[in-house]
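Structure ticket #2291
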Amino acid sequence: MNHHLQKLLSQKLPRRQLLTAGGMAGFGLTLPRWLAAQDQAAAELPAAMSTAKSVIFLYQFGGPSHVDTFDMKPLAPDGTRSQFETISTSVPGLSICEHLPRMAEVMNRVTLLRTVWHTMKNHNSASYYALTGHPPAVDDIRLRDTLDLFPAYGSVVDRYAPNTNGMPTFVAYPHVIRDGEVTPGQHASFLGKVHDPLLVTADPNAPGFGLPELSLPAGVSTARLENRRQLQQMINAQAKLGDAAVAARGLEDYYSRAVSMLNSPKIRQAFAIDEESASVRDRYGRTEYGQGCLLARRLVERGVKFVSVYYSKSIGGRRKEEGWDTHGFDNTRMYPILKDYHLPLLDQTLPTLILDLEERGLLDQTLIVWMGEFGRTPRLNANISRDHWPQCYSVLLAGGGTKKGYVHGTSDKTGAFPEKDPVALDDLAATMFSAIGVPPETELRDRGNRPLAAALGHVVSEIFA
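Resolution: structure written out below.
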């Protein structure tokens, strides 16, 4: 193992502080009892920082190149140095990629983490780690989604700090991401289906965008779905599956929640993106991702606590309108694709979201997290592109009590390893949980009723104002 990684790993001491948060929400628990259990669990949790009311999690599937965007090394040798030039930003002494001029203007509102690291080199393994804060047992390209793996961040928030305002706690869209297999970490897993996100797989940029997942099947009325006997029949059918019945944990509450959403004008109005003016929609960009960022603003504005926006359904590598995995393209196509597609899309959406939230007085209470599963190799490969590199990469945070115009950590001269203030993914997870009011030590219970901490890392307290 590289001595840089040995040093980093030696600094990470797992901690599992047991709490009395309770492990209820079992199969068959009625909604009133389940809600009472949640109230009791929340009352028994230790204090968290609680600097944010909402999190907008902008997941950049495929892995953006940190050394071509936010941690450029203009003095590095040929074969390492980016083909892009740097430009100055609104933060004195901080420069970023020349193709991010609008981002350069808003960097004085951003915390830039330049030393995020882990050891997973495959997309699904690394993404599972990035989406849950927990590493898989093995780094395997074939890692499959199972109920033994950890839940998504938003599902943990939904379990331990749920909304009481009539809005969903956790919303995710517009994709279920996958690299061959479905990427783990996008749902509630062993916490139970009732804590799954409200998943919307429609394009927010499409005409007539709404909530198709909440439409009832033909011939099924709301009254019929509300009928407890019908619900119980569905649950009993699931129970006949034997051991697989654990997948139905919380099914009754899941359907109850679906009914409430079907009947909620407040929820449907939150998704009514066509209410926005043409000028606002144009500023975000008439793209799936651009309108997804606008929808995220609408959702947190109306009280949703955790919004996951997936940049693309695939890692990329086949055409430009996909994820950030540009090393699959032949010869010199990485730089043109970054210049013509990924960087302009980033430069339009993220600054617009930051400024829009700020103008509405929502930025200080909304934590924006912009990240992928890893960065890119400092050295260019034979195709003049960069391969997977989890040992050091950049993550952007804005709002939610974080410092403005702050750079945390320093990478080495080629952007290969952290040189100062490393931030493990475990630490980033702990920091997000604490910011939204869930202590990292919060005890989860897996399918075997074993106590597991929500996050094993340490809160990066230096990034908060």
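Closing remark: Residues 14-208+276-463 form a domain with the Alkaline Phosphatase, subunit A fold (CATH 3.40.720.10).
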